[in-house]
Structure formats: C-alpha cells, structure tokens
Description:
With about 280 residues, this protein is α+β, with helices and mostly antiparallel strands. It contains twelve helices and five strands. The chain has a five-stranded antiparallel sheet with strand order 2-1-5-4-3. Strand 3 and strand 4 form a beta hairpin. The radius of gyration is 20 Å and the shape is globular. The mean pLDDT is about 90.
Amino acid sequence: MIERRRLAEFIRARREALTPEDVGMPRGPRRRTSGLRREEVAVLSGVSSDYYSKIEQYGGPVPSEQILAALARGLQLTLDERDHLFRLAGYAVPARVARRDHVNAGLMRVLARLQDTPAQVVTQLGETLVQTPLAVALLGDETAHVGRRRSRIYRWFTDPRERERTPAEDHRHHSEMIVGHLVAASANEALREPVAELVQGLSRESEEFARLWERQPVPTQYCEMKRILHRDVGAIDVYGQTLFDPDQFQALMIFTAAPGTDSHDKLRLLSVLGTQRLTLS
C-alpha cells in the first residue's frame, strides 16, 4: 500500500537537498532557495510539473514503476534510496541486476558537471542510459531505443545505419572491440544471463557476430583514438576516457579531442550547433 505522506516527504527532502549545480543547471540571479524547484525536478525526470507537484501534495494517481525509476534518476538517488522510494509507493524492490535503468548517483553528479563535454553513461550491454547535450550532437540520441535495440552492440551487428558514424575501414576493428568487451562482461556471474540472451539473439541474426564470438577476442584496456563521422562537420578524432561503477555494471564515457587540432575545433562548433542541421545558403 502506498504511503503518500511519507513518499511526499521523502522526495521533497531529496529535492531540497539538491542544488542546481548538482544537476548541471544554472542557479540564476533570483533564486531564493538553495534546493531545486519542483518544475526542475519534473524536467530532470521527464514528467509534467503538475504531475510531480501532486505527488508532493499527497495527491494524484499512484506513480507507476516507470515513473518512480524516472524520479529516482532525476533526484539522483542511490540504489538504497531508490529501493526505499519503491517501498513507499507500495512496490516490491526492483532486482538490482535485472533492472539496468537506474544510473549510479555518483556518475550522475559527475555527468552534471560535464554539460559542455560529450559524455554518457552506458551499461556493459551497450545500453546508453543518459547523455549530455554534446554527446547527443556528436553521436545521436542513443537513449531513444527500446527492446533489444537499446543495446548498441545489437544495433551495430543488425542495423547498417549504426555504422554510418564510423569510417568503413574501421568497421572490422570496431566489431572486434565490441565483441571483446561483451566477452569480458560474460565473465561476470551477475551478467551471464543477460549477456547469454544477447549473444543468442545476435548469433542467429549476424554471421559476423557469430564468427567473432566463436573466436572469443579480449579487448585492450588502453584509451585509443576513435574516428567519428559527423554529417555536418565531418570526421572527428576523439579519445574515450571511462569511469567504471562495478556495483551497477555501468560506465561514464567521456570523449575529448586534443587541443589545437581540427577535431577540437569541430567539437567546439558542435557545442554551438547542438542537434541543429548545418545548412548552406
């Protein structure tokens, strides 16, 4: 049974404990309180301001599990805090391994301070959970996919459009690296079931994947250069730095370009263009 008052008090306390800087928002000159406003949490959670306000005022419908997961992400809750949120709403606690949609709170705090940098949080199955605006401009919106297509590994081997941002001469190496990382993930007992499901599906649909999986490649662990083809600004050479959260099997990926290079200038241009198309008059 839902405990509306305690639920409202809990999310209000978490909202008031967050600052605009914690979530990458400007403070603004007229802000009187240090915490976030209700409408700001609503935006961060992808729900309407009216809906969120009703929850804090003990009203409205019982939030669904999907809404609660979104609120947990918007409020940057830890896994323990997320579990408490679900209990207050009358739901069973989600399985921590089976549910991969909750972003680690620490990674979210780091991501919030990287809004002018292409960065994103991904799972070991290649699912992109959240991206900075510049990551969307560079790589496209990778959070919009559903089902098996949530995994970039799956899309790489089944959808030719996924390879359009990678030069053709790099496809073979990229395929080997992707499979190698999946091989590494399969060694983790907690991930064996979802990895096995992904492998079975890809082995049926992609001969290339099946051939590579049989070889069991092991990925290199150093940070190598990756060339990305952008439809408006052309080829961009970036280096990926990765911050891992082993408890939730997630990683924060940060893409940078060497200062003084054309690629660095192109990233700066993308930060201005965003997701707009560049048109020539």
